[in-house]
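Please check this today:
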Amino acid sequence: TGELELGHNFKVPYSNSVMHCCTSLQPNSAVGHGTCVLLQHLLSRWNLCVCVRVFCVRGAGGTNSLSAHSFQQQHKMTTPATFITPQITSRSAERVAEDIDKYEKYHTTHGGDVEARKAQYADMVNKYYDLATSFYEYGWGTSFHFAHRLKHETHMESIRRHEHYLALRLGLQPGDKCLDVGCGIGGPLREIALFSGAHVTGLNNNAYQISRALHHNSRTGRNLDKISRFVKADFMNMPFESGSFDAVYQIDATCHAPDQVGCYKEILRVLKPGQYFAGYEWCATDLYDPTNLNHKSIMAEIELGNGLPDVRTTKQTLEALKAAGFELVDSADLSLSADIAWWDPVDPDNWTRLQNFRTTKLGRYATHHLVKLLERFGVAPKGSLEVASMLERAADGLVAGGKMGLFTPLFFFLVRKPASA
């Protein structure tokens, strides 16, 4: 079991047996347990999934609850409490198709515009991760990010080193309270917490991803409850008191923010004076020309396929950090010093690797026809194939942007909150 903090300041016991049940049962199918990882994910997300009922808690009650007031004082949280009850339910094909349609309409390639995406960023990003998370896990693992990679280093070794680097630059120590802004399904959080011994709070506004994070926590065989927790909240309005954390990091998360300066200001607020914030940001490089139609087309595919309101430049990112009140300590585009290109794991033309086989042309072909078959027999909801195709287009945009030097997901920064702030 783990503890799921949803609604900011009320801790709710959560049984991972619910998620184990979801990932095991396969309705409307004679396929045996564990036949296909993708099939498991699609079933756990769409055909038989953990959904939640959210309602306000106006008082304490029951043996499994703390009073809102006492929990607020203990964890320095500031906003009203809500309670989450996990339950097994069905998610209709119509709902999936509706989410796909709404998500696509936010983007330029389907008639949307930047201002609409920014105004509705929470809905857009949640729909994106509702649709994409299962495919991410299938093709990528539990750490949804690229990495600086050296020769003779495997993809997964580079992922771990990329995460350890943040912990080292932040100087994390056992007992430190650290915040992971936009924690995904908790891959980096688990690695950094176990590597450093610091207590890491994972912040995420997507309930499904938090349920997956708790599921993966339970499978580690380590007592992660003592050094980690998850909070469902918007990083533009965090439910923590000012100066709550000794360190903050983000990996490919704040690129989803509708207001970069506003997001960084909120991070500055919850960080203790004199302490550090580090991250990897998705950025357009100096080579990107917004008047070049080919450049714009590539960037539009990146935005559509990755749930982004827009893509900021490296200069804009540094300016936003300074405007928020941070002092710049260090910054670098780590892609320039890597031995192996960051886009290599998603380049379909790279036939030589056995790792990340699922993202090669042959792997894509196999996945495409598997999902098509699952849709035809009603195992996966209609729309699954469309989501897979959207993510493939996103990968093509990333590879094109990387090869042309227009885009980097490896822009590292380390900033400090002034001691007097």
